[in-house]
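Comment thread on ticket #2218

A.B. wrote:
> Attaching the input chain for the structure job we discussed in standup.
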Amino acid sequence: MKLKVTKLEKAAILPKYVHSDDSGLDLSAIEDLEIPPGESQLVPTGIAIELPPNTEAQIRPRSGLALKHQITVLNTPGTVDEGYRGEIGVILINHGKNSFKVTRGMKIAQMVIAPVIRVEVEEVDHLSDTTRGSGGFGSTGLTSD
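C.D. wrote:
> Ran it. Output below, let me know if you need it in another format.
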């Protein structure tokens, strides 16, 4: 399966897997910018992609940035639809207490290519019963007892 990538800027870095068994391709910033504490920024990557049929790209945080700097992807996972052909941008948010400097070439997120199942929506008067029912938002408790 091929992911077609166009560099929109000469200095853009192609997404790549670091290890042969990685799930996500690293995405890199194309410019320097600073994210103050509590704020978010759209970080450009300088690339556009053409996804294989019936797939999406999920933009996810990098665990090292989250743990060491409290930087994460704001709308995680960000969804890139199959038909989108514009620049891939990553919305990073700084949950830390210090400003964070994004530098050109820095790995800022990872992109996972995933299959998409499209469904036909059917309106019904009633849904089937289950043991869970409408219980949600913590209804199963916090412990594994």
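A.B. wrote:
> Thanks. Noting for the ticket: The first helix runs from residue 63 to 69.
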